[in-house]
Amino acid sequence: MKIDVHTHILPENWPDLNAKYNVKGFATIDHHKHGCAKMMIDGRLFREIQENSWNPGVRIGECSKTGVDIQVLSTVPVMFNYWAKAEQTYDLARYLNDHIAQVVKDNPDRFIGLGTLPMQDTKLAVKELERCMRELNLAGIEVGTHIHGKNLDDENIYEIFQACEEIGASVFIHPWDMLGKERMDKYWLPWLVGMPAETSLAICSMIFGGVFEKLKNLRVCFAHGGGSFPFTLGRIEHGFNVRPDLVASRNSVNPREYLGSFYLDSLVHDERALEFLINLIGEDHVVMGSDYPFPLGEEIPGKLIESMSELNMQVKEKLLWKNAAEFLGLTELIKANVIGE
How far, in Å, CA of 226 to CA of 289, rounded? Predict the structure, then answer.
């Protein structure tokens, strides 16, 4: 059994949002040849995508080849658009969420959905969260590592997390719009350096801002193995100890105490890094994630986990699917399906 918590999907087509909202900056799609499309932003190529980015049948075929039973679908972070007017992001979020919900409805045994929200507006975000959970039957939401420059300890964002805890929504946090990108115009550095830093910033903001302390039942998973956070925790903890006046101004609990309060996906591309991650955060809080269908992902989801001889079968099962079921709040349902098979 494999559940891939980190996969991205797009509709095959969407309206010209720049024309619809009379503004620049939204992504457009150009199907310039069969099975291949260009995502464009203001006339510049953002990314070229293949048919597996939008075609559920192709995805299911590739999942069958790689042994993935269930994909957790979330939008591509460039579609967050937290910079836009809230009503525009809200309108687009509804469009994207309806699409994901329909894909899940058509293939309920292969897909689980996460929605996106207009996070820059608390009321609209909570409204769409409730629709995602109660009407669309999604498992939770995907959120960026910051909301147009506001870190995840912001009091307005906290209200959305509070609503997620109350309604039982899982929260998958993914880096986007990386800090320092103006200094990273070469070598694909925003993806190689900026993304890990973004994720560590998000984790630290939620720890030091007291989010995990106040919302103890909030289920959160961070992408890409938590970025640079796990490997700099010693420095983070040392800073907490030697300058509590700066670091512990809103939360006096040692950051190490929150290991086990959130999940990290397994996408670290290195056996020693994954072993370290499991030892650090615990075998119950690492979930399989591949970043399908993009090139920085794991080509065969779960291959690294399965290849590690030092992990026994019980631990591998946790990493490959059981922890994901816990994160998604679907443990009993998944167990029932497995037993039924």
Answer: 12
How far, in Å, CA of 74 to CA of 96, rounded? Answer: 9
Main-chain phi, psi angles of 19, to 5 degrees: -75, -40
Please provide the DSSP assignment of 110-159 as one string: TEEEEE---TTSHHHHHHHHHHHHHTS---EEEEESSBTTB-TT-HHHHH
CA 266 to each of CA 216, 245, 258, 287, 306: distance values in angstroms, whole numbers, following the listed order: 23, 34, 18, 6, 12
In the chain, where do the E strands start and end? Answer: 3-8, 27-33, 36-41, 44-50, 70-74, 111-115, 140-144, 170-174, 220-222, 263-265, 286-287
Strand 111-115 vs strand 140-144: parallel, antiparallel, or unpaired? parallel
Q: What superfamily in CATH does domain 3-7+76-340 come from?
A: Metal-dependent hydrolases (3.20.20.140)
Query: Could you give the CA distance from residue 36 to residue 223 in angstroms, rounded to a whole number?
Result: 26
For 266, counting Cβ atoms within 10 Å of its Cβ (0-12 exposed, 13-18 middle, 19+ buried), the class is: buried
pTM: 0.96
Name residue 112's beta-bridge partners: 72
- State the angle between helix axes of 122-134 and 155-167 in degrees (0 to 180), rounded to the nearest 10: 20
**For range 149-153, the mean pLDDT:** 97
pLDDT in tens, 49-66: 999 999 999 999 999 999
Residue 121, Ramachandran bin (φ over 0: left; ψ between -120 and 50: alpha; else beta): beta
Kindly list the domain boundaries of the chain, sorted by start residue. Answer: 3-7+76-340
State the pairing for strand pair 27-33/140-144. unpaired
Instruction: Write out pLDDT tens, residues 179-223.
Output: 999 999 999 999 999 999 999 999 999 999 999 999 999 999 999
- CA-based radius of gyration for the chain: 19
Q: How far apart (Å, rounded) are the C-alpha atoms in residues 291 and 5? A: 9
Q: Which of 94, 325, 121 is nearest to 221 (CA)?
A: 325
Alpha-carbon distances, residue 92 vs 16, 24, 82, 183 (angstroms): 11, 15, 11, 31
